[in-house]
Amino acid sequence: MFISFExxxxxxxxxxxxxxxxxxxxxxxxxxxxxxxGGTPLAEQIRSILLAVNHExxxxxxxxxxxxxxxxxxxxxxVILPALAEGKxxxxxxxADSSFAYQCAGRGLSKTKLKLLNENFVEKMPDITFWLDAPxxxxxxxxxxxxALDRFEQEKIxxxxxxxxxxxxIHLQEPDRMKRLDATQTSEQVFEEAMSYML
Length: 199
Ligand code: TYD
Hints:
Elements: E1 2-6, H1 13-26, E2 31-35, H2 41-51, H3 61-85, E3 89-93, H4 96-106, H5 111-121, E4 128-133, H6 136-145, H7 157-173, E5 178-182, H8 187-195
Parallel strand pairs: 1-3, 1-4, 2-3, 4-5
Keywords: ATP-binding, Kinase, Nucleotide biosynthesis, Nucleotide-binding, Transferase
Protein name: Thymidylate kinase
InterPro entries: P-loop_NTPase, Thymidylate_kin-like_dom, Thymidylate_kin_CS, Thymidylate_kinase
């Protein structure tokens, strides 16, 4: 089973994923916990470039999109697909939906570009995706408390509003795969709500 977790910054993805990890471990399942961009040594190197604040040169939106997919291709072939083939549960902190939300809805890149990448480089989409949704201000406050802001976290509220609407669009189009969770609840409530979809 392939499960991904999505949402804007600071909505509590990490806490929910940890709860899922413990849940599956308690059931005696083989669980792989991974993240994007990243999840392999090479993909983590790409992540560092993507998140770094570079004052010398701004990253073009196309470069950002292609690096996300370069990291994803590596992650899929090295980690996700082999784990699924071995019958493991894969829990992934962000996946291709983030590219739609951030690079298309947020940055304004065309859906045609994304579709081309997904059709050619994403062999497997998650079986279920949890979208942790909360008003942007709530998450940004939590992100700020965590310390220095990365290149994405430095974006303005209006950018994250667009990202959030991107997730809402996927949710509308693929309600069977993507489940919306009210991330303003306590972490226990969010976990319970998520679990209700796993039955
Ligand atoms: P992450 O570490 O999950 O951020 P956070 O913990 O702050 O939620 O992800 C890093 C950043 O990468 C995040 O700001 C979203 C961005 N991102 C994209 O823009 N496109 C993508 O396809 C992915 C996977 C992530």
